[in-house]
């Protein structure tokens, strides 16, 4: 009972003033609870033993708190031993700025990633390599590889890059509903880029392309850009007599004329006449490039529609693949690609230089073998397998652009 008198004494209130506030608060609650029924404890003979055991169990804690009620260093030592450990953290005014900068950086990354997908990067990379390859056809000796040559290449590559962004944007803006079925990962369909933003990007790219081409004063380049612009609009926009992508022959003509005529011829003539100031000619190497690209781009034009048959047919676009079946069109594509590599082997074999014969024969044999293996392992019943084969043809074309300038 002396313990109960101690608990009810005013000194216990001092326990709430130290660093051990939490322990003292719960200790008082636990001990005071059984003492709130003194009459029941006194009138029952079995309860005092229970009370004694309970108080005995809490005695170490009681002694501990009793010690903490002292003053001076004893109180401070107890407070340090049993009190909560609080560590101070220096405040920095730059923390909100760091968080804001991180969010801004993440936003910029997402925006650039969406823009990257909006521009059809595989086509732009292949196009740029094609322009460089065709420009190298105008090089007659090693002295032609000069700063003037690189400036001339940039004069062609940059305007055509913006024109490619315009074409990709126009195609996606007009195929928004179709891409929900065929290509739901594109940024316009997935909502990463709004329709208004897509229109602004496409229109700005077209304006930049035509302005940069006009500044050069090169008529081969200007005419090539205008021809690409006309074909892009005719291919995509849905107005009477246009929307040529829905007409198989006209769609193939658009793609073939762009890749087989505009890119190689305009690039070569720009370097030949506007940069090197040489007379207008059509060398054997340029004829080979046009012939090869005519066959290869025709194969790409047909292969492109094979994975998109479902969405195209739903919206009334009856491509060759939708009309004649995926398997038959795939076989035609493979035949066109083989013919293109056959032309390359023939052009290399008829060269007057022995080292050109060896390099072109070896290089094109490797490319043709890799292509044959990929075509043989393509599963025509799988959309992903056909799509993988389609992108593989672009990679193979990039490799061909390294061999094309060697053929003389």
What report would you give on this structure?
The protein has three domains: 2-82, no CATH class; 119-279, UbiA prenyltransferase (Tetracycline Repressor, domain 2), CATH 1.10.357; 282-408, Four Helix Bundle (Hemerythrin (Met), subunit A) (Up-down Bundle), CATH 1.20.120. The longest helix is centred in the middle third of the chain and has 28 residues, at 147-174. The protein has helices at 2-7, 21-35, 38-43, 47-57, 59-68, 73-82, 95-118, 121-136, 147-174, 176-182, 187-190, 195-216, 219-236, 248-275, 284-303, 309-314, 320-324, 326-349, 354-376, 383-403. The N and C termini lie far apart (114 Å). The protein is mainly alpha-helical and 408 residues long. It is built from 20 helices and no strands. Keywords: Chloroplast, Membrane, Plastid, Transferase, Transit peptide, Transmembrane, Transmembrane helix. It is found in: Plastid, Chloroplast membrane. Its main location: plastid. One of its GO terms (cellular component) is chloroplast membrane.
């Amino acid at each position: 009972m002396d313990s109960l008198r101690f608990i009810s004494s005013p000194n216990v209130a001092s326990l709430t003033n130290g660093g051990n506030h939490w322990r003292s608060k719960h200790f008082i609650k636990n001990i005071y609870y059984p003492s709130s029924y003194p009459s029941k404890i006194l009138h029952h003979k079995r309860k005092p033993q229970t009370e004694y055991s309970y108080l005995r169990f809490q005695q170490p804690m009681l002694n501990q708190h009793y010690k903490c009620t002292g003053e001076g260093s004893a109180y401070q030592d107890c407070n340090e031993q049993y009190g909560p450990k609080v560590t101070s953290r220096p405040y920095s005014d730059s923390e909100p700025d760091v968080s804001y900068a991180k969010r801004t950086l993440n936003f910029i990354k997402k925006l650039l990633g969406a823009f990257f997908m909006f521009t059809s990067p595989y086509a732009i990379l292949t196009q740029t390599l094609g322009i460089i390859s065709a420009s190298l056809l105008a090089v007659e000796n090693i002295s032609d590889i000069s700063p003037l040559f690189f400036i001339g290449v940039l004069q062609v590559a940059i305007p055509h890059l913006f024109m490619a962004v315009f074409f990709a944007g126009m195609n996606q803006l007009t195929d928004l509903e179709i891409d929900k079925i065929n290509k739901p990962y594109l940024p316009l369909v997935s909502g990463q880029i709004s329709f208004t933003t897509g229109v602004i990007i496409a229109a700005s790219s077209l304006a930049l392309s035509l302005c940069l081409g006009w500044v050069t004063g090169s008529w081969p380049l200007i005419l090539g850009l205008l021809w690409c612009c006309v074909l892009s609009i005719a291919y995509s926009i849905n107005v009477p007599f246009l929307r040529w992508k829905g007409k198989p022959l006209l769609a193939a003509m658009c793609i073939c004329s762009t890749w087989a005529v505009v890119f190689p011829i305009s690039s070569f003539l720009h370097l030949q006449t506007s940069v090197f100031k040489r007379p207008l000619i059509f060398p054997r190497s340029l004829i080979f490039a046009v012939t090869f690209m005519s066959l290869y781009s025709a194969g790409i034009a047909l292969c492109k529609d094979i994975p998109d048959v479902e969405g195209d047919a739903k919206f009334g676009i009856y491509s060759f693949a939708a009309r004649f079946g995926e398997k038959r069109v795939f076989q035609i594509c493979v035949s066109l690609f083989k013919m293109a590599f056959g032309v390359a082997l023939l052009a290399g074999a008829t060269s007057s230089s022995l080292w050109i014969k060896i390099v072109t024969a070896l290089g094109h044999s490797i490319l043709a073998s890799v292509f044959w293996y990929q075509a043989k392992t393509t599963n025509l019943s799988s959309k992903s397998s056909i799509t993988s084969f389609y992108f593989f043809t672009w990679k193979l074309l990039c490799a061909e652009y390294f061999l094309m300038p060697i053929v003389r």
